[in-house]
Amino acid sequence: MAEKENNKEANKKPPKPNNQPRKPLIPVGGKAGKPKFNFYWIYGILTVLFLALTFFGGNNTAKESDWGEVKQMLANGDVEKIILVNKEFAEIYIKDDKKSNYDIKTKESNFTENSADFYYQIGSIEAFEKRVQETQKGTTDRVYIRNEKRQDWGKDIFGWIFPIVLLVGVWFFIMRMMSRGGPGGGGQIFNIGKSKAQLFDKESSVSVNFKDVAGLEEAKVEVMEIVDFLKNPKKYTNLGGKIPKGALLVGPPGTGKTLLAKAVAGEAKVPFFSLSGSDFVEMFVGVGASRVRDLFKQAKEKSPCIIFIDEIDAIGRARGKNAMTGANDERENTLNQLLTEMDGFGSNAGVIILAATNRADILDTALLRAGRFDRQIHVELPELIERKQIFEVHTQPLKIDKTINLDMLAKQTPGFSGADIANVCNEAALIAARQDKNIIQKQDFFDAIDRIVGGLEKRSKIISQKEKEVIAFHESGHATISWLLEHAHPLVKVTIVPRGKALGAAWYVPEERQLTTADQMLDEMAATLGGRAAEKIIFNKVSTGALNDLEKVSKQAFNMVAYFGLNDKLGNVSYYDSSGQQEYQFQKPYSEKTAQLIDQEVSSLIEESYKRALDLLQENKDKLTQLAKVLMTKEVIFREDLEKIFGRRSWDEGKDHLDINGTDFNSKETLSKKKAKNKTSEKIDESIDNKEEVKIAVKEKPVKASKSKKVVSKKPKKDTAKKETKGNINNLADKGSNIKSKA
Questions:
Q1: Which among 288, 289, 319, 294 has a CA at the least distance from the CA of 307?
Q2: What mean pLDDT is reported for the chain?
Q3: pTM of the predicted structure, to 2 decimals
Q4: What Rg do the C-alpha atoms of the chain give, in angstroms?
Q5: Pairing relation of β-strands 491-495 and 505-508?
Q6: Residue numbers annotated as active site
Q7: Which among 110, 146, 605, 690 could disulfide-bond with 544, CB atoms 3.0 to 4.6 Å apart, if both were Cys?
Q8: What is the DSSP letter of 434?
């Protein structure tokens, strides 16, 4: 018994390992291993069989012959019969006992009778019959021609069925191609009114979360509250609170509005519909409204969920502002349907709307009201601390030098958005790779900032010695005035090397402030006109290189007079339109007399600033000349070169924004001890070139006049449009935009 048990154990099969491949899933009603039969194979087989019978079914082995051969056959009496088929060709049959005289292949056909041995293509029936009769003269066993009409049913049927089948096949193919659309059937010809929103759920989740969004602390708090409401609704409903129906993200381009929405999609763990405002726009009438209805229908089926509409200004513009489109405006119909779905007669519980735009001032007021967008979250340009956090996020995947101070990079990029900082990091990596470096060094970041702000250096650009001298004095004039005035931005570097479209440039360290006084604006205007004043003093004439200088100071003076109420004659009056609708009007908000007064005061401010610059440069003409000569020799000068000529700026003591990388600019350890290629750039102020002035200025929020005439205060937070200023007001706010012009 023991031996039998041992044999049984020995004969047992070893257990199967766990790493064997899994069996394929068997569909319901199917069998494993058998693919699903496609019924179209039957149509294919029948078509092939039909073509085979048509072209290869006959067993016609007849050889073509000419009249000479036919005449010889008739003369020898070898022809058994001649059949004229359809009056087109003649079939010639040879007698059985005479076939050995000819090279004839005899084959039996299963489908037809014995075929002819030869055939002759005739031209005229009468001529052929006459030839046959003349050839058989004198013979007793004559052969007479027999006419026969045959019907080729296969070819006839194929001839009229094939075009029909071809048309049906082409139509079927086109319809199948049209039926292949995006999510929700948006590509189907019969489902063109379906929503084109992309759905993110548990199966297709987003990997971005709030940890990937640097800065934007206030905006994240408000958005995270919406996410927390979806995760823990009882926390708020127990107190009687309701979830916000919508949130509008408002801010300049590149500040991270879409990134914040992606973080919401990754954190919410609920269905997330993402689409753009242009997805509702279609060439067919009524499609936009239909897609809005279908979008909210899908959202209600998957509630609670979130709908994100990027660039909502594509369909959310104020209604009735464009009278040229006619009575039936498709965009307005789409907006009306969106307003109804967001807060109409029907219930829309469990659906939260997120939208993003950088033109909130042009949106319809009905779209912005509470009940549709309960919250307006302002996503502004990052401050100093926020820029450092953004640098920390974007430098994580980079191989950078450990000695790089991110505080220094944050101070060097005032007015940069999150997208700009990401571009700086990527450009620094490209520059380091171009020089075959193993790590990204501090100099690579400096070069990247200069590259993005001012463009690429063009040392090969041909400039005459006279023009180079004018450029040097022009840039020296800017540097001198900015150094001698208290509220002008302190200088870091000046160069006369062409960069981008600019022939010369100056880098400054702007102070990030929220309020601007009249004295500060006047000092900046005088520094801007310093280049033109230097040309006037040294050469007694001016060039077209000051075009951008004049444009800038003209807009700045106009803002002081017409918007900020910083003029004594005009008084505490502001003609700034925060709603943004003034651009659609042909009339100014002031009279002709007031317009003349504004022009006079603007001209007076500019002339006063220009005279002030002339006086300062005249008093320091020798130092201006000395600085220009140093600039022509070195082509690039730094802050300590000005300190040697003009001395230190007493009012720069203790300013934090001048302390970069732990070293104050006023200390002995200055930028001069570094190489001339060290591009510690903070701001490109202006160019002598008559094409462009590149500038990174102090990041200031759009402001309006306060009760005091000499101070510009911040605007109320409730006014959304004031956060999104345009035109002249943006040029005064000076957030680091590139100003371009041509002479």
A1: 294
A2: 75
A3: 0.62
A4: 44
A5: antiparallel
A6: 475
A7: 690
A8: H
